[in-house]
Design a protein that fits this description.
By secondary structure, the chain is an all-alpha fold. It has a domain at 2-101. The chain is 83% helix and 0% strand. The protein has helices at residues 2-16, 21-34, 40-51, 57-100, 104-133, 140-143, 146-163, 168-186. The protein starts with a helix and ends with a helix.
Length: 187
């Protein structure tokens, strides 16, 4: 039954990933592509769209995948699946944290989780780079194609602006405008 499968898949994603939606991205990619619900290209497109829509990334992703796979009921099942583990964990942690916040064991676990989250986010970025920059495969001609050059210019420009602490809203709007313009001119 697809509804139970969506709930279970997103429940495990929500249960075993820490650090928010971007830390969930590698697991979302693996599970959604392995189940045949979306292709990697569709996930990359969805991440781009999700960045410009309100709401938590993981919820947006679960809702979208659920809708595409099984309609409104699928969206509800997937969304509940991804949200429920966090809700349960937060209730438990809030109840216990005050008692254990000075524990070396808890401090060590939190330190390790921060490093893990950064690693998961880096894994998601590096996993999507070939799809974003080299969708036609690796060759000399792909490195000089208008698609690659436009993507590289947009990426470098947004990276420089992000390092200069430009508002993320401005970055999203600028990258959308640059993408639309490059699509009209070169693609």
């Amino acid at each position: 039954m697809i509804y139970l499968e969506l709930f279970y898949t997103f429940f495990t994603i929500g249960l075993f990933t820490f650090g928010g939606g971007y830390a969930m991205l590698p697991l979302i990619q693996q599970k959604v592509v392995d189940n045949g619900w979306l292709t990697l290209e569709e996930i990359v497109d969805f991440v781009a769209v999700s960045e410009s829509t309100p709401g938590p990334f993981a919820v947006n992703c679960a809702t979208y995948v659920g809708t595409e796979t099984a309609g409104i009921l699928g969206a509800i099942c997937a969304t509940l699946g991804v949200v429920l583990p966090s809700f349960i964990i937060i209730l438990i942690v809030a109840r216990c944290y005050i008692r254990f916040k000075n524990s070396k064991l808890v401090s060590g676990a939190m330190f390790a989780l921060r490093a893990t989250v950064v690693g998961l986010m880096a894994g998601a970025v590096f996993g999507m780079l070939p799809t974003v920059f080299l969708s036609a495969g690796v060759s000399l001609s792909s490195l000089t194609s208008p698609e690659f050059l436009c993507s590289a210019v947009i990426f470098v420009t947004m990276l420089v602006l992000a390092l200069k602490k430009v508002s993320p809203i401005i970055l999203i709007l600028c990258s959308a405008a640059a993408g639309i313009l490059s699509g009209l001119l070169f693609l």
